[in-house]
Amino acid sequence: MSKVAIVYHSGFGHTDRLARDVAQGVADAGGLPDLLRIEPQQSDFGEFFDRIADADAIIFGSPTYMGTVSAPMKAFMDASARPYFVKAWKDKLGAAFTVSGSPSGDKLNTLTSLAIFAAQHGMLWIGTGQAPGNNDDHSAATDAENRLGSFIGAMAQAANESPDVTPGSGDRASARALGGRVAVAAARWRRGESEALRAPALIG
Ligand SMILES: Cc1cc2nc3c(=O)[nH]c(=O)nc-3n(C[C@H](O)[C@H](O)[C@H](O)COP(=O)(O)O)c2cc1C
Predict the structure, then answer these.
(1) Positions of the chain with pLDDT lower than 50, given as ranges
(2) What's the start-to-end Cα distance of the chain, in Å?
(3) Structural domains in the chain (count)
(4) From 137's CA, which of 17, 53, 74, 189 has a CA 20 to 30 Å away?
């Protein structure tokens, strides 16, 4: 069974809603999700790093604030210099999701920042692997999976309403799909790694 850490911040509950959908997707695919929610003023991430240590994959989630990750997520990213210096996350799989108020809201920048962050750690990136969800019917269908047409990570858009009603079903399905995709990829990665280790000549 693959273990997938889901590290996220949520100021008003929308990213939290999605994080729990991502976790559901991981579990539905046979993986073990570990939800790690960053608190607003958190500066000690020791327990997070301990729990991430044996994860096969890390999925990062942040709301888009001012066109990028939120400050608490950035605090976590900066604190991760500790695992960075010992290459603790090298070769773990990585993925991300975000939510913004506007349909665009510059949230691609949030996902790009998280992908670069993962690359700095030597992680391997997993995108959505999904075709855009609403290109065929000229509608702005809210129930289509990947309706916002993102490849680098899962995107969602939330109205200024309770997380009980927004993001909508399509965005929540996208989050579940991302969790499932990462769990399956992590299981394959784990199996492939053990086969490769039995044949060291193949990997030099
Ligand atoms: C400080 C702040 C900055 C924001 N910046 C953006 C932004 O750049 N683009 C956007 O579309 N929405 C922006 N929003 C809206 C949030 O992305 C949106 O409300 C999201 O659902 C919040 O997620 P959360 O409930 O997990 O905090 C911003 C909200 C806040 C509080």
Answers:
(1) 204
(2) 27
(3) 1
(4) 17
